[in-house]
């Protein structure tokens, strides 16, 4: 009964999306458009929450629930299991899409009827594409006969709070770019778009998308850090790249929008970027869902799904990019500006972001290109990305430090030097303090730390000068980037890794700590059994710092083993222990990491997110 | 005029990339076929305890005389059971020498498992720490290598042997002979 209702709601959302497309295309009365937009929102809410309810009551007559849930699973993870699989995550995607759709609808006023109608028409088209895809290739309400007594369980490494909320945040990011995409198309087809403040409509959506994409990526990274037990937090996995690329474009887009707002130039560029940001998001989905690239994230493979998403991408991309090539001319301006100005800095930074994005894109699809042309398989990994993307990011970060302190328009060169000096001075002081504590020198380490303090110092200078009209959101986010760079540098340059076979009572030294393997005991969790090691950590003066308790878990229902790293964190370093294979007589394989400054990555991401939230608030207020 | 062409560039690049994706989706490709840096190289040497025999297993003794199939397996691995029939066919029908590497497993369980399903292996090395697997660059269990009579790795397959792989290995062996 309920699954049928869910399926019905899904079909209803298809009908309403179709209606919205028709009504907005024909520019019907606002009432009709309103009915279709609200109908779409309500029906997709209904189908999403019905599926969630089916998970909560463990209705194993539904194939999707049967495959991904189990009665022993904690309630929280029953709920999050809804989007822990391909079919359910498509429902979430549709829901987020229709929520954005509703917010665009709310922007209607007397002056923008044609513009918003066009944007809603494109949104309806996107919704239609994803709803049709879900109904015909990935229907989460499919039944299984006969009804099963219990489910197959759930991939235990996904049973984790950070990962549970990671997809919704990421989807807000991806789908948020769909709003920018629709607004961009609406602008391109507009007759007198040059004089219409379309960028004011686009900016809040880009802010939302970028902010949530940031925190979504960070949470995924945090999960990888403590759950995968590899001691790292970024692996240049194709799926990580698939979220990183729209983020880079989003960053460029966000900053160019500021120039459009202030100077009315770069309009064509922004229109193109906003098209590309969403197209890259969809291509990212394609890479994950089609199984064309092998990755830890790949859901169950099905080539028909891949072909569908690809065909849909071709439609969206083909239409929008042709439209761009024929209609964007009127948005070009000869409003050039100088290198030494705020807009100059933003533009240069933009170019760097695009280059990094292209570099990452090339690295991600390079194995596919090689395979298509030569039939050989190669893999591109960390060494490529680290040696290409990072050097391009360095000048971008240097410019990012000065950008906010420069003025709009032309800036006097001696004036610039005067403005930059306090920042340089502070950076030097911070760096000296830092290295007098850390005393570990390497070129990359010094570069990273200087860059981090460069960003932090310049923002401190701005705050200190207390200009009126201070853009708190921007300053907060930029400070966050400074912290982030500090964390990234510390953890990648000064990480120490020790792998050894340890028996009970044996000990090992790492950095200035002594780790003693104290005991092993068995633990029973809600749906797993675990072997837990107890490790006592002492410092140089033989004071006990902490007891670390990594686990080796076995999930009997799915037959999976997972390892739970145990981490002791403070502002200076993480101690990270992974409990590997072994036995009482032969000892266990133990991996211990000393990861300096990791926490600043998470603090940084959180601060960037907060800054984003502040700016979102500000931009929506401007629109109202 | 030039500007007009440039404006088409995003579209053109987009179409090229999508065509490649389409091509890759439509051709018959196998993502589990991963090339090995070891192909056309000598096998990594190792020593280990043997499962059924009391003497140690030295790879230098066991390779280099005839074409040998090296199969990494474990009793806890369900796909290993699926491919077992093919290993037996290799042994029964082709008389192929098959060396098993028992990966992170319980020796007693393995013995029972082989008694029940039949034992296609001429020798089994015990890799309880997974060290041999690391040396051989094993991705996952099961995984199979074809080693030539000179001790050189000629082929590698990640995942269970199925009909297609069975035929592929057979034709490769004919070529090597």
Write the layout of secondary structure elements.
The complex is a heterodimer of chains A (624) and B (177).
Chain A: H1 2-25, H2 30-56, H3 63-68, H4 75-80, H5 86-105, H6 113-137, H7 161-189, H8 198-227, H9 238-263, H10 267-290, H11 303-327, H12 342-374, H13 382-402, H14 413-438, H15 443-465, H16 472-493, E1 496-502, E2 507-510, E3 513-524, E4 529-538, E5 544-548, E6 551-555, E7 560-564, E8 566-569, E9 573-583, E10 587-596, H17 599-623
Antiparallel strand pairs in A: 1-10, 2-3, 3-4, 4-5, 4-6, 6-7, 8-9, 9-10
Chain B: H1 2-26, E1 47-50, E2 56-58, H2 59-62, E3 68-73, H3 78-94, E4 97-103, H4 107-117, E5 123-127, H5 131-135, E6 143-147, E7 153-158, H6 163-176
Parallel strand pairs in B: 3-4, 4-5
Antiparallel strand pairs in B: 1-2, 1-5, 3-6, 6-7
Structure description:
The complex is a heterodimer of chains A (624) and B (177). Chain A is of the alpha+beta class. Chain A has three domains: 1-158; 160-411, no CATH class; 496-596. Chain A is built from 17 helices and ten strands. In chain A, the strands form two sheets. In chain A, strands 2, 3, 4, 5, 6 and 7 form a six-stranded antiparallel beta sheet that branches. In chain A, strands 1-10-9-8 form a four-stranded antiparallel beta sheet, covered by helices on one side. In chain A, strand 2 (507-510) and strand 3 (513-524) form a beta hairpin. In chain A, helix 6 (113-137) packs antiparallel against helix 11 (303-327). The mean pLDDT of chain A is 88. Chain B has a single domain, classed as Glutaredoxin, CATH 3.40.30.10. The mean pLDDT of chain B is 82. With 177 residues, chain B is of the alpha/beta class. Chain B is built from six helices and seven strands; from the N terminus they run αββαβαβαβαββα. A seven-stranded mixed beta sheet of chain B has the order 2-1-5-4-3-6-7. The interface between A and B is medium-sized, with 37 and 27 residues.
């Amino acid at each position: 009964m309920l699954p049928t209702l869910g399926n019905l709601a899904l079909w209803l959302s298809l009908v309403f999306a179709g209606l919205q497309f028709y009504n907005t295309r024909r520019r019907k009365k606002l009432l009709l458009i309103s009915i279709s937009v609200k109908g779409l929102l309500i029906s997709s809410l209904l189908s999403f929450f019905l599926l969630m309810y089916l998970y909560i009551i463990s209705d194993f007559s539904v194939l999707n629930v049967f495959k991904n849930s189990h009665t022993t699973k904690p309630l929280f993870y029953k709920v999050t299991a809804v989007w822990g699989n391909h079919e359910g995550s498509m429902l979430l995607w549709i829901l987020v899409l229709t929520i954005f759709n509703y917010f665009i609808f709310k922007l209607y006023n007397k002056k923008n009827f044609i513009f918003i109608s066009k944007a809603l028409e494109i949104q309806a088209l996107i919704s239609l594409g994803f709803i049709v895809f879900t109904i015909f290739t990935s229907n989460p309400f499919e039944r299984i006969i006969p009804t099963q007594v219990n489910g197959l369980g759930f991939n235990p490494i996904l049973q984790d709070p950070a990962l549970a909320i990671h997809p919704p945040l990421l989807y807000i990011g991806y789908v948020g770019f769909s709003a920018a995409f629709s607004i961009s198309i609406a602008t391109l087809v507009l007759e007198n778009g040059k004089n219409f403040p379309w960028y004011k409509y686009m900016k809040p959506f880009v802010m939302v998308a970028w902010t949530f994409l940031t925190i979504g990526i960070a949470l995924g990274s945090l999960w990888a850090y403590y759950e995968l037990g590899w001691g790292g937090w970024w692996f240049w996995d194709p799926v990580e790249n698939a979220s990183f690329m729209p983020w880079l474009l989003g960053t460029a887009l966000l900053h160019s929008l500021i120039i459009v707002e202030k100077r009315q130039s770069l309009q064509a560029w922004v229109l193109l970027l906003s098209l590309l940001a969403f197209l890259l998001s969809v291509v990212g989905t394609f890479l994950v869902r089609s199984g064309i690239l092998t990755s830890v994230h790949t859901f169950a493979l099905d080539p028909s799904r891949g072909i569908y998403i690809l065909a849909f991408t071709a439609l969206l991309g083909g239409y929008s990019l042709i439209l761009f090539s024929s209609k964007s001319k009127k948005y070009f301006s000869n409003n050039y500006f100088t290198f030494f100005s705020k807009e100059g800095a933003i533009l240069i930074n933009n170019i760097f972001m695009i280059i990094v994005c292209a570099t990452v894109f090339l690295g991600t699809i390079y194995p596919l290109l090689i395979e298509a042309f030569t039939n050989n398989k190669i893999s591109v990994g960390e060494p490529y990305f680290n040696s290409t993307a990072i050097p391009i990011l360095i000048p971008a970060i240097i410019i990012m430090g000065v950008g906010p302190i420069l003025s709009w328009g032309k800036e006097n060169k001696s004036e610039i030097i005067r403005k930059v000096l306090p920042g340089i001075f502070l950076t030097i002081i911070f760096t000296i303090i830092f290295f007098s504590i850390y005393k570990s020198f390497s070129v990359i380490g010094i570069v990273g730390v200087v860059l981090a303090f460069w960003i932090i110092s310049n923002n401190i200078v701005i705050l200190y000068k207390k200009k009126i009209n201070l853009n708190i959101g921007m300053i907060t986010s930029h400070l966050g980037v400074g912290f982030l760079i500090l964390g990234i540098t510390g953890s990648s340059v000064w990480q120490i890794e020790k792998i050894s076979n340890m028996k009970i009572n044996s000990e090992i030294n790492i950095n200035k700590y002594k780790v003693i393997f104290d005991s092993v005991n068995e633990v029973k969790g809600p749906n797993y059994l675990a072997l837990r090691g107890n490790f006592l950590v002492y410092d140089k003066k033989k004071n006990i710092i902490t007891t670390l308790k990594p686990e080796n878990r076995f999930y009997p229902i799915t037959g999976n083993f997972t390892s739970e790293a145990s981490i002791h964190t403070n502002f200076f370093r993480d101690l990270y222990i992974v409990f590997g294979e072994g036995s009482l007589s032969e000892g266990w394989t133990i991996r211990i990491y000393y990861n300096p400054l990791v926490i600043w990555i998470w603090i940084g991401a959180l601060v960037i997110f907060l800054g984003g939230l502040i700016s979102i608030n500000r931009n929506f207020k401007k629109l109202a | 005029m030039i500007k007009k062409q440039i404006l088409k560039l995003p579209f053109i690049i987009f179409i090229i990339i999508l065509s490649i994706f389409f091509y890759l989706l439509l051709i018959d490709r196998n993502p589990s076929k991963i090339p090995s840096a070891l192909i056309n190289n000598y096998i990594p040497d190792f020593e280990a305890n043997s499962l059924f025999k009391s003497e140690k297993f030295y790879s230098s003794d066991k390779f280099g005389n005839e074409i040998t199939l090296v199969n990494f397996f474990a009793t806890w691995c369900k796909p290993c059971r699926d491919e077992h029939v093919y290993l037996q066919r290799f042994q029964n029908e082709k008389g192929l020498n098959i060396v098993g590497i028992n990966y992170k497993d319980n020796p007693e369980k393995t013995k029972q498992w082989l008694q029940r399903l039949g034992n296609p292996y001429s020798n089994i090395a015990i890799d309880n720490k997974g060290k041999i697997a690391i040396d051989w660059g094993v991705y996952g269990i099961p995984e199979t290598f074809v080693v030539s009579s000179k001790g050189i790795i000629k082929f590698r397959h990640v995942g269970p042997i199925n009909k297609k792989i069975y035929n592929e290995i057979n034709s490769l062996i004919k070529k090597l002979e």
